[in-house]
Design a protein that fits this description.
341 residues; alpha+beta; Creatine Kinase, Chain A, domain 2; 10 strands; 46% helix
Length: 341
C-alpha cells in the first residue's frame, strides 16, 4: 500500500501520483461503446498486463466493479485506486491493481485506460518511471489512438497530448490556517497548475490536504510537465515549513495547547465522526512534525487517514450504522494512539 511508505519530504507530502489516459485505435470512447466492445477492452488490457511475462505481472488482480457493492467501491476510492467517475459509470468496467496496490489500471472509465502509479511521499520521477514501463508493456500489444500532430487522443480535450496528469498530495495546515492558501492557489493557477481536494477534481480540501497537479497536456513534453510541477511543489513545501515554524515560534504555548487538545480527543474519545477526525488529524500531524508528539510517524498518520475513512471502518468492523462506525473509529484510535505521547 502506498500509504505504508513514508517517502521523501513526508512532513508535507503525503503521496505522489502519475496517471496516463490512453484509448484504443479505431474504437469508440467509453459511453459510445456497446457492452461487447467494452468487454473486449477489458480482456485485451488484462491479457496485455497479466500475460506480459514481466516481474510484476503476477502481482495484478482484476476487480469487476459491476459485481462490487457500493461500500466496496467507496473503499477503493478511499484507497485512491479508482475515481468517483468510475463509481458512477455504467456498463462493463473494472480495475487492475498490482505492485502492492501502488499501480491501478482503470478500464472503461472516461477513457479506455486510466493507469496510475501512486507512491508515498515526494517522488515524481520515480512514479513516472514505473507508470511509463507499464504503459510500454501495454502498448506492445495494443495500438493506441495517437495523432502525430496532437499526441494521445482522449475523450476530454484537456487530456489530449501527453494524456498525463501528475499530482502531489500535500498537507498544508500552516498555509490554510493563516489564510495564505487562497493567494497561492490563484498564483499557481496562472502557471498552468491546479489545486484540488483530497480525491481530485470536484472534491473538497478536507484536513487541509490538497492535490497539486498539471493542467496542460497539449504542446508540452512529459519532462517539462514534471519539471514545472516540481518547481511549484518545492515552493509550497518551503512556504509551508516556514509558516509552521513561525506559528510555532511566535506562540509556542498556544500552538502546543491546540495540538495537545486535538491529540487528547483523538486518543481518548469513545465516539468519533469522520468529520471530527478530519478536523483533528492535521494538528496531530503538525505535532509530530514539530516534535511535540513523540513515537508517532507519518506512516501511522497516513494509515489512519485512509483506514479511518467511512468505507474502511465499515468493512473492518462489519457495521451498517453511522453510530457504530463512529464508535469503531474511536476504538481504533484509542488502540493505536494509546501511550504514544
Amino acid at each position: 500500500m502506498w500509504y505504508k511508505s513514508a517517502g521523501n519530504d513526508n512532513d508535507v507530502v503525503i503521496s505522489t501520483r502519475l496517471r496516463l489516459a490512453r484509448n484504443f485505435k479505431g474504437l469508440n470512447f467509453p459511453g459510445k461503446m456497446s457492452d461487447e466492445e467494452a468487454d473486449s477492452v477489458i480482456e485485451k488490457v488484462k491479457n496485455a498486463v497479466v500475460n506480459s511475462g514481466t516481474a510484476i505481472s503476477d502481482s495484478f488482480k482484476y476487480i469487476d466493479l459491476r459485481k462490487a457493492s457500493n461500500i466496496q467501491k467507496l473503499f477503493f476510492l478511499e484507497e485512491h485506486l479508482i475515481s468517483s467517475e468510475m463509481i458512477e459509470g455504467k456498463g462493463p468496467r473494472g480495475v487492475l491493481t498490482g505492485y502492492d496496490d501502488k499501480i491501478s489500471i482503470m478500464i472503461n472509465e472516461e477513457d479506455h485506460i486510466r493507469m496510475q502509479c501512486i507512491l508515498g511521499g515526494y517522488d515524481l520521477y520515480g512514479a513516472y518511471d514505473i507508470i511509463n514501463k507499464i504503459d510500454n508493456i501495454i502498448e506492445e500489444q495494443i495500438d493506441y489512438a495517437f495523432s502525430e500532430k496532437y499526441g494521445y487522443l482522449t475523450k476530454c480535450p484537456t487530456n489530449v497530448g501527453t494524456g498525463m496528469r501528475a499530482s502531489v498530495m500535500l498537507h498544508l495546515p500552516g498555509l490554510s490556517i493563516t489564510g495564505n492558501i487562497s493567494n497561492i492557489v490563484a498564483a499557481v493557477n496562472k502557471l498552468g497548475i491546479t489545486v484540488r481536494g483530497l480525491y481530485g477534481e470536484g472534491s473538497q480540501a478536507k484536513a487541509y490536504i490538497y492535490q497539486v497537479s498539471n493542467q496542460v497536456t497539449l504542446g508540452i513534453s512529459e519532462e517539462d510537465t514534471l519539471s514545472k510541477l516540481k518547481d511549484v511543489v518545492d515552493m509550497l513545501i518551503e512556504k509551508e515549513r516556514e509558516v509552521c515554524k513561525t506559528l510555532y515560534e511566535n506562540n509556542l504555548l498556544a500552538f502546543k495547547d491546540k495540538i495537545a487538545r486535538a491529540y487528547g480527543v483523538l486518543s481518548n474519545a469513545y465516539v468519533m465522526s469522520s468529520e471530527e477526525f478530519m478536523n483533528l488529524i492535521p494538528y496531530a500531524r503538525m505535532g509530530v512534525n514539530m516534535h511535540i508528539i513523540d513515537n508517532i510517524d507519518s506512516i501511522m498518520l497516513n494509515t489512519l487517514l485512509v483506514e479511518l475513512q467511512p468505507a474502511h471502518v465499515a468493512m473492518q468492523a462489519d457495521v451498517d450504522s453511522d453510530l457504530r462506525r463512529d464508535e469503531k473509529r474511536a476504538e481504533i484510535l484509542r488502540e493505536r494512539l494509546k501511550g504514544r505521547v
